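Thread: Newbie trying to understand structure tokens

Hi all, I'm a second-year student working on a class project, and my supervisor (Dr. K.) asked me to get a predicted structure for one chain before our next meeting. I've only ever worked with sequences, so writing a 3D structure as a token string is new to me. If someone could post the tokens and maybe explain what I'm looking at, I'd be very grateful. Here's the chain:
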Amino acid sequence: MADSPPHDPEDDHDDLAALEFFTPDVDASVSVFDAFGDYVVDDDSMTADVLDALDPRPYEAAAEEPSVPLFTVTNPPGTVTVTTFMDGRVNRIELSPKVTTMTESSLADEIVVIARLATQDARSAQYSFMLDGMREQGHDNAATHDFLTRDLDLPSPDQAQAARAQVFATRYASNHD
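---
Reply by user tm_fold:
Sure, no problem. This is what the structure looks like when written as tokens:
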């Protein structure tokens, strides 16, 4: 077993000594914030360029068309609009000011219904895309359609349109906006 070194009187120290910070003698007229003056840009055009570079959604990019296909469905009253990506994930949900008259549960239900329809439209686009690719490979028969609908569970565009018409007819039959 190792022997501990002998006790040295200099080892005795105040445990709170670490909290005593050294403060140099500084001229009271000098501020610690004076150092930031070296980093200030006096040119307003440079400041605008820097701020524009930090903008996550520049105005020019907002006006451009998206690089990926998006699928949007709006309910007949125009209160809820849902946009999805081609894989069915929701991109954005837009609500009109009229939703303030709806209860929270009915609004949530409405968003879910419209999101399902938008997802179905996106999945029907997958069906069309895959069918076109299979046709290019020479596979345009009943087995191809069966593979897409049964094995991949993708609705055809006609099926998606019929489902939307059925939901709109039953859900909004009494609305005469």
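A couple of things are worth pointing out once you decode it. The chain is about 40% helix and 10% strand. The mean pLDDT is 81. Feel free to ask follow-ups in this thread.
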